[in-house]
Amino acid sequence: MSSSFLPSTSFATQRRTSQKLGNPKTAGPLDPCITPAPNPRPIFQFLAFGLIISLALLQLLPATHFRDPFDPFRNWAPLHSNPSSPLREFRDARNGDGGGDDGMVHVVSWMDCLDLRALAVLANSTLSSSSHPDLVFFHFFIPGGNEDKVSFYKLKVLFPHSNLEIHGQEQVKEIMRTVFSGGQYAEPSYEEIVPFIIPTVHNFLRKFIYVSANVIMKARVEELIGVDLNNYAIATAEDCSQRLKNYVNLDVLDAIQRSASKAWVSETSYAKDSCLPDFSVLVINARKLEKDFVEIVLWWSKALNLRERTNKKNLAVALALYNSYLKLSSSWLVKDFSLSQVKNSMIIHYDGPKTSCKESINGTASEYSHGNVWTRYLPSTSDRILGS
C-alpha cells in the first residue's frame, strides 16, 4: 500500500541538518580588500578632551542671570539687578496688598465720548515710556463698548502686540443713574466717581491704575504698582493750585465736623489750606476700598447742599477721601503742556484736538488749546487710520 507520508526520509533530513548546525566551519582570514577603520588623530582627541574640560569648568562659574518667577513671560533678568526694579516692585506689591494677581499692570481709562486719537496717544505714550510694555494691560471704557468692533480693530492695527480690551459703560452709568436719582444730590463728573464704581462692576480689577483719557504719559506707569499703599485703598497726587478753602465755607465745614457722628467725618478740624486730590491718575486697590464709598459721597453732597451751588467743582468726592489716601509725589501730578512744563513733567494734559462732548453728568468738558506734543506719539499715517 502506497503512502504520501515518508517518515524515514524526513527524520534523516533533520539529522543531517542538525549535524551541519552543530559543526560550523572555522572562519577564514579577512578579505584583504576590506580597509580597516582609521585610527583618530591625536590632535582631535586632545581637542575633544579640552572641550569637555572647558564645559565642566563653566559649571563652576557664578550665575549671572535668572528667570524671575513673578514675570509671566519668564524673561532673563540679571542676578544682581536693582532690587527696586519694576518687576520686583510689582512682586512686592502683589505680596503686600493682594494686587496684580496675574502679573499685569492694569491701566483703566474712561472716555465720555469716543476720541480714538486721544486713546491712541495715551496708549502709545504709556507703552513707549514703559520698561515692560508687555506687562501693560489697557481697559478702555468707551460709549460703544464691546459692540464697537471698528474702534477696537483700529487700535489693534496701531498696537498689534499690546494687551487691550474695550468695555462698555452702560452698567456703570446705570449705577450712577440709580444712585443720583431724585434730584437730591449734586452729580459729580464721571471722571471723579467712575474709578470707584468700575471695580464693583468688573471684579477682576483688584488693583489697577486709573488714568484720564486726556493725558500724555511720559512716566513709567509700572512704577505706580510698586507703591506701597499700606492700609490705604487709594493713592494720588495733590493739586495745590486748588485748595479746600477756595470751594467751601470753612465755618460750615467745621459745624458739620463738630455735629456729625459719621465714621467718615474727620475727628479734627479740616485744614483750610488742604490741597485737593487730582483724579487724573489714581492707584486703586479695590479690596481695601470702602464698600459704602458712594454712600459717603452722597452724604457729603447733601450735607454741603452742593446741588444749590453755582460752582461746578464737586467737593463730595474730595471730602470722602480726606485723610484717606496715600499722597503720591508731585511728579505724578498732571501738568499743563506749556513748554516749561513739558520738559520737566512726567504726565501732561493731552494737547491735541478734542472731540466735543456733552455726555458727562454735569454737562461740562475740559478744553485745551492745541499743541504739538501729541504728534510725537501719533504719526500722520496712524492718524489717518483712526480717521478712516
From TrEMBL:
Its EC number is 2.4.1.-. It comes from the Eukaryota. GO terms for molecular function: glycosyltransferase activity; metal ion binding. Signal peptide: none annotated. Its main location: membrane. Pathway: Glycan metabolism; pectin biosynthesis. The lineage of its organism: Eukaryota, Viridiplantae, Streptophyta, Embryophyta, Tracheophyta. Belongs to the glycosyltransferase 8 family. One of its GO terms (cellular component) is Golgi apparatus. Residues 1-34 are annotated as: Disordered. InterPro entries: Glyco_trans_8, Glycosyltrans_8_dom-fam, Nucleotide-diphossugar_trans. It is found in: Membrane. It is a single-pass type II membrane protein. Keywords: Glycosyltransferase, Metal-binding, Signal-anchor, Transferase, Transmembrane. This is Hexosyltransferase.
